[in-house]
Design goal:
176 residues, alpha+beta, Hypothetical upf0131 protein ytfp
Length: 176
């Protein structure tokens, strides 16, 4: 099973959800530490603290599932996220999104990587990283997410940490 945290167009109300996320096993409200921005096009992007990155995505979905499982065991033993002690509350915001669980990583990750323009081992605007995400019931889980490199994109900061689509029909097949 693979878990993916989404914060924009892949959320249930986002215009990319049906094409890329239908058929999930489970979904939960979740959050993490970061900064959420929106570009002039309406596409959101996320920056997270470098210290929160547990692992980088690879081109091998099975290997990424193993990485996720290894970090899940480590986090459950530690009882907390490695990023919790590294930052003060005013440095980063709480970003709200959805945590999807899928049972078919070989089918899910390649299309998502393509949508997000992530090419493991090659220059990309977004990167797929494993980071600790807190579920609405307080459970800390390592989840894959797409984050921009710090300073790589420009946009308007969303201090609420929440993105809502302004129009489902104006922009299609864009990332987030």
């Amino acid at each position: 099973m693979i878990r993916i945290f989404v914060y924009g167009t892949l959320k249930r109300e986002g215009w990319n959800h049906d094409e890329y996320c239908r058929g999930y096993l489970a979904v939960a409200e979740a959050s993490l530490e970061g900064r959420l921005y929106v570009r002039a096009s309406g596409i959101p992007f996320l920056e997270i603290p470098e210290s929160a990155i547990l692992a980088w995505g690879t081109s091998d979905p099975a290997a990424d599932v193993i990485l996720q499982s290894q970090w899940e065991a480590r986090l459950s033993l530690a009882g907390s996220s490695p990023s919790e002690a590294a930052h003060t509350p005013h440095d980063w915001s709480i970003i709200h999104g959805e945590l999807f669980s899928f049972d078919d990583p070989e089918r899910r990750l390649p299309p998502l990587d393509l949508l997000e323009g992530y090419r493991p081992g090659s220059p990309s605007i977004y990167r797929r990283v494993l980071a600790p995400v807190r579920t609405s019931c307080g459970l800390m889980l390592p989840c894959w997410l797409y984050a921009a490199y710090p300073g790589a994109l420009r946009g308007r900061l969303l201090p609420s940490g929440r993105w809502h689509p302004s129009s489902r029909s104006s922009i299609r097949n864009q990332s987030g």
